[in-house]
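anyone seen this seq b4? input:
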Amino acid sequence: MEFLYQYGLFLAKTATVVVAIAVIIVLIVSAKHKAKKGELEFNELSEDYRTLTDDLQQQLLDKKAYKAWSKQQKQQDEPKQRLFVLDFNGSMDAHEVEALREEVTAVLAVATAIDEVLIRLESPGGVVHGYGLAASQLDRIKQQNIHLTVAVDKVAASGGYMMACIADRIIAAPFAILGSIGVVAQLPNFHKLLKKNHIDVEQFTAGEFKRTVTVFAENTDKGREKFQQELEQTHVLFKNFVHKHRPALHIDQVATGEHWFGYQALELKLVDQLQTSDDYLVQQFRCKKVVQVKYQIKRKLAEKVGLAASTAFTSSLNTLSNLSFWR
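predicted toks r here
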């Protein structure tokens, strides 16, 4: 009786998980079918800064002094150089790259060699293929001979640093986290639990290493060894990529999987300057027209719920699947 009770409890839990997954899949499909095409939004940050400055001066100066200051400002020439600002706040699956590619395409349609692009980058890393594509989007800017600056205020680790290293110049806040040039993968294995409850899992593959390690079947030493080899190969590719874009780095010193704060990263040449994105922008406002470019998808409430479910479901699958991570 005790066995039947435990077995029934196990089946109930399994059924609950299956039903939950089915509901999430329905929401995902619904969201994908209903999602509207996004649109580009432009915000002239330099104009906002001038308005802010003007308001403060009007409050601080007497009428005569303000009038003289205002006249002087109007006599200044309109800057010819432009700074395009893009924001990338990356998650584990790097789905934000879909917006990034639209933003980069828009900038490249109008930018010239005298312009500059600033990426305000925040990411702890994630899946290899997602961040590989994100880095390729930044490389598109470099290929057009447009100066690229990356600003890290909080974190650009692992896949995030893979993106950052593309830049001509990396600036970082003093206590921003950078580095973590390594690869990790982990997944649970339920084989013993299934075996205890007399549940068999049969796995069929064509190709010796089509599946190296798995969640439900019994893993073998040979499969584990092959999977470790794949992680090592990915790490080598990661190291070579970073070293190609930042040749001054002592790559073996920094590619240990460790992360560093901004102060340490500067000494290790992982970054070029300690500075927040705010300070950098204030400097640019004085000599360039600064425009923020953002690709925004308009969604209804049901679509937002579906996207949230999609993100949670994808994160769960990534944890359970045979994926490598820049972490």
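Residues 317-327 have pLDDT under 50 and may be disordered. DSSP finds twelve helices and ten strands in the chain. kinda curious what u guys think
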